[in-house]
Amino acid sequence: MAPAGSASHAEGGVGPDDEEPTGRKGKKLLTPAQRKKRRWRRIRRTIYAGVGVFVVLPAIAFVVTYFMVDVPTPEEVAAQQGKVVNYYYAGGEKMAEEAPPEGRRVILQPEDIPDTVKHAAYAAEDATFETNSGFDVTGILRAVWNQATGGTGGGSTISQQYVKVATDNDEYSYTRKWTELVKSFKMNNEQSKAEIITAYLNTIYFGRGAYGIETAAQSYYGKSAKDLNASEAALLAGMIQQPGRVEDEQVREQRWSYVMDQMVANKWLSKQERNAAKPPQLIPDEKARPEALTGPDAFIKNRVMAELAAKGYSQEKIQTGGYKIYTTIDKRAQKAAKESVNEVMKDQPKELRKALVAVDPKSGGVRAYYGGPNEPGVDEMDWGNVQRNPGSSFKPFDFTALLQQGEKGLYSTYDGSSPRQFGTVTVGNSSGVECNPCTVREAMERSINTVFYDMVTNDVGPRAVAEAAQAAGIPEKHGEKPTMGSLDGNISIGGGQTQVTPTDMAGAYATFAADGIQRDTHFVAKLETSDGEVLFDETTPAAKKGEQAFDSDPEKNRQISRNVTESMIDVLPGSDLSCPGDHSCAGKTGTHQYDQGDVESDENSQAWMVGYSPQISASAWVGTGRGEPIRDAAGSPIYGSGLPGSIWEEFMNRYLEPLDPEEFSDLSADEIFGPAQAPVTDDSSATPEEPEQPSSTQESTSQKPSSTPSPPPRSSAPPSHGRPSEPSSPAEPTESEDDGGGWLGGGADDPDTANGNGNGGGPPGG
Predict the structure, then answer these.
(1) How many Å separate Cα 224 from the centre of its chain?
(2) Which residues contact 540 (CB under 8 A, 6 or more apart)?
(3) Which of 125, 467, 649, 735 is labelled catalytic?
(4) What is the C-alpha to C-alpha distance for residues 337 and 328, in angstroms, rounded to an integer?
(5) What is the pTM of this model?
(6) CB–CB of 296/373 below 8 Å?
(7) Neighbouring C-beta atoms of residue 731, cutoff 10 Å
């Protein structure tokens, strides 16, 4: 009998040699052909799924969305725009309200808008407008990428921008982009390009409270849109992206230049016309918007809008929403600031420019802001927001950096002789004033340049000074321009590329006034929607908490700041400046020398006074704005204790007089850094030193009379509250504060201010 296996084989069964190959786990092994067939089957399924997900479903969604959405007409959009925006003082009183007056908006027809205006808009916003389908694929991909990577922005076409304005939806999201894209496509299917660009130009916001090209043309130039030339149209189109910064001349010129270049690139303007063109001038703001904040107060509105824009609230959004803006400005303080400046400067040369900024140390809020008179055709610059060399008013940051090292302090001594050589640089003090040995306290009072230059170049280093200044609140940059551009010895006396604004200085000194608690300087206290929804609030305890500026240890941080304050207490009586009544004050004057290469020049180009009480910090500046020599009505050089000092003192008197006095925190003897104070010889037995008489050019009428007594010698223990003693004996000019006077040579050029020295310059009393 044949074996079973043989019979099976004979009957056509599968023998051991003919079985399909299997794996170790009994799974069938596929042939190469079978594997290839399976791969293609999977690929086809993936493609079908991909087509369904990325093509069919979006197409269906697109069609559904297309029939569900509508594009508002310009008339419908206009009805939603231009609501009243209310501005309030810190105390809740209304400051002003702004809205485009009824009837100013004009809806133009396509034939009313010249090609020049349309081309400018294309150049600024959408060069392919005439040929695209309402959306730009590359722009969409860019927006998707930005969303995926945490960025913002995209490449919206003019049609998409109209939809965004019409729907008042500017959030960065896929949903908004999708709806915007569909509406834009629908708009391009149902309307001509001429109708779309007309709708866009009739509704877009241009700044100055102007919606629509006709209103904008009237607000910018006092003329109709049909009369605009290429240069005027380019500026209007350029400001669409930054309407809240229309009063910033630098921004205007940058945007205008960009659009003009784009018009040339797209052959809408010849190179000859471009080369011959100049940025157009705007009509005065009060003529453009009679209801707007004007004069010095207009600068407050500009600073408010810039601050809100930085927080993500555009001027257009604010105007459209009719928001309520609660500013930090104190009505009484603002009145005091304007009156103080006007009183001191009323009979002074007209070419002098001035600024006064006051900051609340307990919140960081700007209480008063005078950037200039804002007189059309005379002085329209906001000097409270322009960088200038601070001169010796920067020296407290030198001392702060020294105190942070923890080894030296108020009574550490330096060689304050003049002149002194530091490598290739020669540094001198004003009018030959000198002391050796010289304590830091005395050097601060008399503003001995050689002491602070020595302190920075040999003890702490320029970088430590920059870091101390930034910790106090000096920003690293002002726009795109650094505040401390070069880290060299010039920073010790506020020269070279050390340039700050009056706002910066008032805010940084407020940190000293607050015992080392740094709070960001700001103009907006609270923002609400028209129906009262609070969008943000800077008046809460959490918002006003602030940060330790100079050391993470709260007590050491306070001690550093309090030592700095102590160093500046004697500066005021030494410069014949004071606080009202029983109020406590400290501060520092500063002068930046002008010499055009003459290191011994008596001319100055900038003059400052920055000082504070526990309740307010104020910065006053006087200059020409062009880095030219500054002289008062009597023809004498102006120093920090002169006109700026008088402005500061007048403001402090007006502001502090009605308030209950507050003293600086206690400073005990063991809280003073460095060596203890050396014993002072009894005044009655001391042989008086023969005073050095200043030259005639230093006996400036911009300084206060020297008949006011000077303070008596200090006791062996420092005052516990920092209240300076009242003067009791005649002060010699060479003994008083000099504002970083003197000179510095050997490569300290300052091209930004036409000052060859780059020093703090200024004679006694500076």
Answers:
(1) 35
(2) none
(3) 125
(4) 14
(5) 0.68
(6) yes
(7) 21
**pLDDT given at position 712:** 36
Q: Which of 176-180, 229-233, 540-544, 634-638 has the lowest mean pLDDT?
A: 176-180
> What token pair was written down for 142?
């860019």
Q: State the CB neighbour count (10 A cutoff) for residue 652.
A: 29
Q: What is the mean pLDDT of residues 637-660?
A: 96
Specify the pLDDT at position 186: 63
- Pick the closest to residue 399 from 320, 340, 469 (CA basis): 469
622 CB neighbour count, 10 Å cutoff: 32
Confidence at residue 106, expressed as pLDDT on a 0 to 100 scale: 72
Q: Give the burial string for 586-607 (b: 16+ CB within 10 Å, else e).
A: bbbbbbbbbbeeebebbbbbbb
Q: pLDDT digit string (tens) for 595-633?
A: 655 555 678 899 999 999 999 999 999 999 888 999 999
Q: Annotated catalytic residue: which of 159, 231, 340, 392?
A: 392
Query: What is 47-93 written as a DSSP string?
Result: HHHHHIIIIIHHHHHHHHHHHH-----HHHHHHHS---EEEE-TTS-
- Left (φ > 0), alpha (ψ -120 to 50) or beta: where does 578 sit? beta
Cα–Cα distance measured from residue 685 to residue 612, given in angstroms and rounded to the nearest whole number: 36
Rounded to the nearest 10 degrees, what angle do helices 115-125 and 158-167 cross at? 90
Q: Tell me the two tokens of residue 455.
A: 């302190």
State which amino acid sits at residue 519. Answer: R
Residue 556 has pLDDT above 60, yes or no: yes
Strand partners, 365: 522
Written as six digits, the tokens of 483 are 């505040």
Which three-class secondary structure state does DSSP give residue 584? coil
Distance between CA atoms of 601 and 603, rounded to whole angstroms? Answer: 5
Assess whether 417 carries a catalytic annotation. Answer: no
Q: What token pair was written down for 354? A: 């001035």
pLDDT tens, position by position, 389-431: 999 999 999 999 999 999 999 999 999 999 999 999 999 887 7
Residue 215 makes CB contacts below 8 A (sequence gap 6+) with: 100, 104, 105, 106, 206
Q: 352, 341 in Cβ contact below 8 A?
A: no
∠ CA 473-479-484, nearest 5°, is: 55
Q: Would you say residue 473 has pLDDT above 90?
A: yes
**Arithmetic mean of pLDDT, 550-571:** 97
Rounded to whole angstroms, the Cα distance separating 263 from 266 reads 5
Strand partners, 528: 324, 534
Of how many residues is the chain composed? 766
Based on the residue annotation, tell me whether 392 is a catalytic residue of this protein. yes
Task: Count Cβ neighbours within 10 Å for each residue of 59-81 and write b for 16 or more, e otherwise.
Answer: eeeeeebeeeeebbebeebbeeb
Whole-angstrom distance, CA of residue 520 vs CA of residue 528: 21
Query: pLDDT value at position 596?
Result: 58
Contacts of 48 (CB under 8 A, 6+ apart): none
Nearest residue to 121 via CA among 197, 223, 193: 197
End-to-end CA distance of the chain, in Å?
Answer: 131
